Structures are given as structure tokens and as C-alpha cells.
Amino acid sequence: QLQLQESGPGLVKPSETLSLTCTVSGGSITNATDHWGWIRQPPGKGLEWIGSIYYSGNTYYNPSLKSRLSLSVDTSKNQFSLKLISVTAADTAVYYCARHVFNGGVFDLWGQGTLVTVSS
Amino acid sequence: QSALTQPASVSGSPGQSITVSCTGTSSDVGGYNFVSWYQQFPGKAPKLILYEVTNRPSGVSDRFSGSKSGNTASLTISGLQADDEAYYSCSSYTTIGTWVFGGGTKLTVL
């Protein structure tokens, strides 16, 4: 069955760039009905939608992060990625990737999540 | 966009029913039926338990049900069980083509 797995550094210095990749296995990232999303959760706080991407490269960003955010997709590797520039301690969170079904507006399959800490 | 408003915590005894509210605006919860609910255990990823306000994915117990009135959506868990103790979060599509989550509610089974 379809599985998602986040990967990337667990520690990023302030003002630097946070980069994460989500690898999709057990299915194709080019499935026509699926978008692919990123959601984060600061320690002890609620979930925040970061953004979503379609395999064609169409992107949808949270307005509060748009100026610092870039999402991309690599169909040859069945992966999609996130880059967040100029990070601060407020970007410390567990970052999840998820399958985002626009028709229904749900995130129906999630990766296990990866903790990214922003600290010097 | 502002996060949807949920109570920080709710509690109930085994066998009882509890309801978790999720309040937004006419630009999100009130404007669309794209409200979903997620169950999350500590240290684990969220799991989808309701979508489009009232629909349950395959495998989710029928003890979980949803409704919506105006700008407020609700999750009801009936026949409360000890393993229902978790965090519950709502999500909604918004007018500006984005998605917003609630702050999450901790359910304690007494």
C-alpha cells in the first residue's frame, strides 16, 4: 500500500534553509487524483498546513509562509520536496508529508513525521 | 488565515458520548462542506477519521460521527472507550484556496 517517508536534517541553524524530501512508495506520485502536501506541528501546538503540490508542478502555499517557501516534485524519483528559507526558532516543528486529496479536501495518508529543530 | 477554534480539552467516562466543536467563519467551515477530522496519538502522525463533515473512511468505527451548523462543525464520539483518548483536530478548505486546521483538542477518558 502507499507509504510516505520524510527525510532531511533534524537541526538547522537560524537564518539558514530548511530542506525536506518526502519519498512516496507503493504507488505513483503522478496519480491524477492526488496532490501532495506538507503539514507541520510545533511542539505542543496544533497542525499547520504549509502547502501542497501536484505532480505537474502546480503549487498551493500557506499565505503566511509563501514568501519563504518553495515546493517541488521529482517524478523520476517519486519524491516531492520542501524548502523554507530564513528559518527562525518559530519554524521548529514536526514536519509531515501527506497525500492531499483535493476532491474532499483531506489529507488521507501521512508520513511518520520528522522533527526539525532550528537552533544555533 | 486564522486557525479554527477548538476547545483545548474535553473529557468523558467510558460508554458516554462527547462532542468536540470546531468553529471557523463563513470563509471556511461555514462556506464549504470540506471539513475533516483527524485523530492523533502522542508521537504519532494524524489519522483521518471523518471527511466532508460526515463521511467516515473505510475502517473507521461508526462511533465517530460529524455534523455542521453554520460556522461550527462538530465531532461526536459515542460509546467512549479508553483507546479513544487522543488529540482530535479539524480542518477546512477556505475561500482563498487554502486549508486551515484547528488548534487540536485533547480527549481524556476518565
Characterize the structure shown.
The complex is a heterodimer of chains A (120) and B (110). Chain A is an all-beta fold and 120 residues long. Helix content of chain A is 0%, strand content 52%. Chain A contains no helices and eleven strands. In chain A, strands 2, 4, 5, 6, 9, 10 and 11 form a seven-stranded mixed sheet that branches. In chain A, strands 1-3-8-7 form a four-stranded antiparallel sheet, with no helix packed on it. In chain A, strand 7 (69-74) and strand 8 (79-84) form a beta hairpin. Chain A starts with a strand and ends with a strand. In chain A, 36% of the residues are buried. The model of chain A has no long low-confidence stretch (mean pLDDT 96). Chain B has 110 residues and is mainly beta. Chain B is 0% helix and 44% strand. Chain B has no helices and nine strands. In chain B, the strands form two sheets. In chain B, strands 1, 3, 4, 7, 8 and 9 form a six-stranded mixed sheet that branches. In chain B, strands 2-6-5 form a three-stranded antiparallel sheet, with no helix packed on it. The mean pLDDT of chain B is 96.
Name a few traits of the molecule.
heterodimer, A: 120 residues, mainly beta, 4-stranded antiparallel beta sheet, 0% helix, 52% strand, globular, B: 110 residues, 6-stranded mixed beta sheet, 9 strands
Give me the number of helical elements of chain A: 0
- Low-confidence runs of chain B (pLDDT<50, min 5 residues)? none
> What is the CA-CA span between the terminal residues of chain A?
39 Å
User: Termini distance of chain B?
Assistant: 35 Å
Largest sheet descriptor of chain A: 7 strands, mixed
Number of strands of chain B: 9
Helix-and-strand structural type of chain B: mainly beta
Mean pLDDT of chain B: 96
List how many beta strands of chain A DSSP finds. Answer: 11
Which term fits the overall shape of chain B? globular
| Helix share bin of chain B | under 10%
Largest sheet of chain B: 6 strands, mixed
| Helix/strand order of chain B | EEEEEEEEE
Of all chain pairs, the largest interface belongs to: A-B, 23 and 28 residues
